[in-house]
Amino acid sequence: MRLAHTGSDIPGKMNETLRRLAEAMQAEGARVVGAVQLNREPDSEDVPCDMDLKLLPDGPHMCISQSLGPGSTGCRLDTEQLEAAVHECGQRLARGADLLFVNKFGSHEAEGRGFRDLIGTALSEDVAVVVGVTEAKLEEFRAFSGDLAEELPCDFDTLLEWCRAGMQNAQ
């Protein structure tokens, strides 16, 4: 079982690094599943960006944010869309995979939902897993993963090397 997590305090870096990593591994022939996050920038400074997931390996894109209206400050995560994305990723994992990418271990996962069970399923099937984790959810992720997870810097080359090693170990 191979589980790695990475994070960055630089806005957008974790999402971009995981997206590039998934593309690189797919180009090398890895069967990748899961989701990477693509944020769509808003038309106005007063509106937060929209959060889209690209389901791996080949789409579709699913918007997982919802508009709460002007001045709202609540969580914009569309949990129904997130769960639909998780379900589709689970179907793809069942068809076989080498790597599972999870864009973020967030509040939903910390509460036992979202990608949490899919991470466990992938690990039980010897599929290497790479998870994005923000500083705000690091303790919850550690409670979930115990001593299984390797913490890696949000560095493309380091993560690429980890993924390649995971592929060699699985063969």
Automatic annotation (TrEMBL):
Pfam families registered for this protein in UniProt:
DUF2478
Q: Which domain of life is it from?
A: Bacteria
Q: What is this protein called?
A: Nucleoside-triphosphatase THEP1
Q: List the source organism.
A: Aliiruegeria lutimaris
